Amino acid sequence: MAGSVDRVQVLGFRMRVQQLDRTDGTLGDTAVLDIGVQDTGPDGGRWALRNRGLAGPVLAEADLATMWTVRGAPHLYRREDLPQVAAAVTPFSDADAGKRIYDAAKPLKAAGIGNLAALDAVATAMRSVVTEPLVKGEVSARVAALMPEPYLRFCRPCDGIHLYEMPFRLAAVRAGLELRAGTSPPVLQPIAGFRPADHVPERFDLIRAYLRLLGPATPKHVADYLDAPVKDVKARWPADVAEVSVAGETRWVLSADADRFDAPRPQAVRLLGPFDLFLQAKDRPLLVDDPARAKALWPVLGRPGAVVAAGELAGTWRPRQSGGKLTVQVALWSAASTRLRAAITEQAEQLAAHRQVRLVEADFTD
Predict the structure, then answer these.
(1) Tell me, what's the pLDDT at 363?
(2) Which of 121, 156, 233, 332 lies 20 to 30 Å from 213 when distance is taken between CA atoms?
(3) Burial class (CB in 10 A: 0-12, 13-18, 19+), 83
(4) How far apart are CA 27 and CA 10, in angstroms?
């Protein structure tokens, strides 16, 4: 066993490897793009990249692409990496595919249709439909018209028949489709010259990426992140890992990172978006050990962002925008120094610039 590390060391390690302590960088050297940067909400993928030192021309539209991948959520990737990403996000097995598509697996099983075969069938239909940019609702309607009953469900809100949502989303990658940036509702379009890679390079292997960016971790942590069965994750667990004890629990980290926990804690202050990778770790009690604070940070609906300071989660924040004006409401969990408040206000200014609006104030409620 490599030794024992505490939560302060773990959070500091994650801040460093996720590059939340840097002020500039390139798309090529931005580590979180290997696992994908969730692009949910106005302060999604591009704000997460800005928090890691990327801004302006570095975020050129032509160099980034958005696909529905892990947990069916939209994620940003380097465009040049899409073939490898497509191979990496493919379910490990038919059972894994069934877990990832949730309730859609039941009617497929009853009809004797394999889950992976079903994803391929939906992908074939999507590929035939989306030959040019097309809004999601239109794609769904046209594909539903091509698919038999086991693929379809009744939708109460619109009193109509649709494809199950998760097979639709997860099949889009297999169909070679991306989401056009900035569209709501989303517009799907073909990826020019797309063909999935024949194998997954270590850099894009999702299990290794989780251990590298959110370690130390257990197979269950990784499985929960992917919505995959623990059995499938264990079967593909890397050989080059080291055991690490965290709060008495045996976890693992890539061997190359086993000695990286003793570096000084990063002192950076960041306003993390609600779905930033730092907050996606599946050991939430390690991130926030107070149940009331955890409930405030991860409510069922309407997540706030998180204030991170010196490697520690320090509170929550919510944007309030009206026209071209932005107020950032900050709820800190303990008394803050004048210096910390100034740093948070500076981050709020950057958020306003990112949104191309004017900051009215950072409104602190302790």
Answers:
(1) 96
(2) 332
(3) middle
(4) 25
Instruction: Give per-residue pLDDT as tens, 347-356.
Output: 999 999 999 9
DSSP H helical ranges for 204-250: 206-214, 219-226, 230-235
Token pair for residue 19? 């590059």
**What does the pLDDT read at residue 224?**
98
Rounded to whole angstroms, the Cα distance separating 75 from 57 reads: 20
CA-to-CA distance for 50 and 177, rounded, in angstroms? 26
Containing 15, the helix (H) or strand (E) segment is helix 7-17
Give the separation between CA 130 and CA 115, rounded to whole angstroms: 22
Strands 358-365 and 325-332: parallel
Q: What is the DSSP string of 334-362?
A: S---HHHHHHHHHHHHHHHHHHTSEEEEE
Q: Is the peptide bond before 196 cis (omega within 30 degrees of 0)?
A: no
Using omega within 30 degrees of 0 as the cis cutoff, is the peptide bond preceding 57 cis? no
Burial class (CB in 10 A: 0-12, 13-18, 19+), 195: exposed
- Any idea what DSSP says for residue 136? H
Write the single-letter amino acid at 119: L
Average pLDDT in the 245-262 region?
Answer: 95
Cα(183)–Cα(172) distance, rounded to whole angstroms? 16
Beta strands in 140-234 (DSSP E): 152-155, 160-163, 177-179, 187-190
CB atoms within 10 A of CB 40: 14
Query: Measured between alpha carbons, how far is residue 190 from residues 33, 127, 266 in Å?
Result: 21, 8, 41
The pTM of this model reads 0.96
Place of tokens 């690490």: 244
Residue 203 DSSP label: G
Q: Which residue has the tokens 């390139």?
A: 26
Contacts with 323 (C-beta within 8 Å, 6 or more apart), sequence order: 357
Encoded tokens for 201: 């390079």
- Compute the distance between CA of residue 306 and CA of residue 88 in angstroms, rounded to an integer: 29
CA torsion, points 269, 272, 277, 283, in degrees to nearest 10?
Answer: 80
CB 258, CB 1: distance < 8 Å: no
